């Protein structure tokens, strides 16, 4: 009994084979097999089954985080370079437009986007203080923004100054951690810094200078661990937070995936959810890690993401700033029960 096997290896490292087998029981069947119509049917069947397998293998679901049929939805495009999203208490969002645009926008709970502030001097990362005031990493300072102006919170340590602060997060006491990687291009031997500005102070303290290019950062739910990524390298770092805000016991929290040899990881802004899962925007998408430092999966975005933040009803929408666009993604996970990020 002759048999004809059609094999196809599916991609995505699953090593799965699709086998279509025709059992030809008599001479008429064997003659029929030579007819083009049967060959075409076999090829179509192969294509359909292979496509079904491939679709299943590119399922974007991450258990407890995002459903397989969820996809980032474009909210609006036409910006220069979106950054710095932070959710508001009413389910809205602030976000930045940089690279010469110098604007901060407000998305309200109904989804309407309005200009909040112009001439922002390149304000990048944004955060909310306990009194709901908006602060930002602006130029060479950390500022508190109003709709028509901003006041300086710090310009750095006297005699040293800041280079180009990038992102920031507020702790439970009202202190501010922020990164200062400096401008591009990277200068060999030039240090980059993570700072802590204590509540009420105008001079920050250097709490780390060992990361090549610190960028995104967040605090765990209990505020006891600071997570910082590195735009150049493939390691996300964790620090224990001391009572006075200093850092200790630096260690590798996670290794980023899909970093090509000789290329930067592109690690940028971060978010954290109510289960202490960490969301790191990278060149390959938003990489998700659990509290045990395990990689759960990568959320793909139409454009390379630069930052993300939970907001919307129940903090179950992940807003993603990605180059010229602002996107949103319906989540199974939920943002932390605290103001802002």
So, CATH architecture of the largest domain? Answer: 6 Propeller
Oligomer: single chain
CATH class of the largest domain: Mainly Beta
Pattern of helices and strands: EEHHEEEEEEEEEEEEEEEEEEEEEEEE
How much beta, percentage-wise? 35-45%
CATH superfamily of the largest domain: TolB, C-terminal domain
Q: What is the number of domains?
A: 2
Low-pLDDT residue intervals, each spanning 5 or more residues:
1-58
Which structural class is indicated by helix and strand composition? mainly beta
Radius of gyration: 25 Å
The count of helical stretches stands at 2
Helix content: under 10%
Shape from CA axes?
A: globular
Work out the number of β strands: 26
Side-by-side strand order of the widest sheet: 3-26-25-24
- Biggest sheet statistics: 4 strands, antiparallel
Question: What is CATH's topology name of the largest domain?
Answer: Neuraminidase
Task: Quote the distance from N terminus to C terminus.
Answer: 66 Å
What is the average of the pLDDT values? 87
